[in-house]
């Protein structure tokens, strides 16, 4: 009888430690989609019964869905503004997850390497520079044989965190851009063709001679598309790299309590200038307590284990001091 009692108690204790089956849903940015897919798959494999479904619909869509309470978490490369925060049905915290780079990609006849000074890059997208043989492009690229070829601008068709990062940078380096299209996730573009998602922009660049656009570093690397060096705030030509993004992040000496910070055009000799954090938008108090516990566990797993995997997909890991700070925030979630 006693043996049966202890066996039953042991089974009950074991059952109490098993994570109950939970299905979490999220939506948002395409920028971190490759690493999020990897993380969600690995976490689910290590936690039977847990399923995390993520829709890569763009940062604007992610903000809209999570602030409306339609998903368990959102994801965004856009820094949420005060109006969005105030209008949200759910009190959220924006947790940085990884760092990445947006790169200018191009398809120019006979040219594999190009350099872009900030003002030239802005004026290309403004339509003020319309041919690859323009003297200002030639000045940035001595010795490069530039063709007499019209420039075809490609931009994102939908609201996009990638667009926000790119135009946040352009608004910092060009008064004409700041006073014209400005920064945002969706703009009235002065010229160009819209592509759906990073895949759409990359597809247009591959197909259309004379084209230029912008995508995350991983999409350029995976699709073997040429991308240019950009002159940074220190005046140095820098090609996007994990080290360059890490140096840009190091410019943040004190992270704000709400983690909302821009690192485009950061100081630093080798800082890559079109760098950014990307954020996971998480409820401070989950409507479903069981889901909230699983989400907290995932976030701690992400910070402890997931960060070790990001470099393989051309992201930069979070600085250790930031990871420590985020652990405190995560453990205070309800």
Primary descriptors:
single chain, 334 residues, alpha/beta, 8-stranded mixed beta sheet, 13 helices
Verbal overview:
- With 334 residues, the chain is of the alpha/beta class.
- It has helices spanning 2-17, 33-46, 59-67, 82-87, 118-126, 135-140, 161-173, 175-179, 197-207, 217-222, 242-249, 289-304, 320-331, and strands at residues 22-28, 50-56, 73-76, 92-107, 115-116, 152-156, 193-195, 211-216, 229-231, 237-238, 275-283.
- Helix 2 (33-46) links the parallel strand 1 and strand 2.
- Helix 12 runs antiparallel to helix 13.
- The longest helix has 16 residues, at 2-17.
- The model is unreliable at 1-17 (pLDDT under 50).
In short:
With 334 residues, the chain is α/β, with parallel strands linked by helices.
> Average pLDDT value?
91
Class per helix and strand makeup: alpha/beta
Total beta strands: 11
Rg, rounded, reads 22 Å
Q: How many strands, what sense, and barrel or not for the largest sheet?
A: 8 strands, mixed
Distance between the termini: 41 Å
Give the count of helical stretches: 13
Helix fraction by DSSP (H/I, runs of at least 4): 25-40%
Bin the strand percentage: 15-25%
Order of helices and strands: HEHEHEHEEHHEHHEHEHEEHEHH
Cα shape:
elongated
The residue ranges in which pLDDT falls below 50 over 5 or more consecutive positions are: 1-17
Side by side, the strands of the main sheet go 2-1-3-11-4-8-6-7
Give the arrangement of secondary structure elements:
Elements: H1 2-17, E1 22-28, H2 33-46, E2 50-56, H3 59-67, E3 73-76, H4 82-87, E4 92-107, E5 115-116, H5 118-126, H6 135-140, E6 152-156, H7 161-173, H8 175-179, E7 193-195, H9 197-207, E8 211-216, H10 217-222, E9 229-231, E10 237-238, H11 242-249, E11 275-283, H12 289-304, H13 320-331
Parallel strand pairs: 1-2, 1-3, 5-9, 6-7, 6-8
Antiparallel strand pairs: 3-11, 4-8, 4-11, 9-10
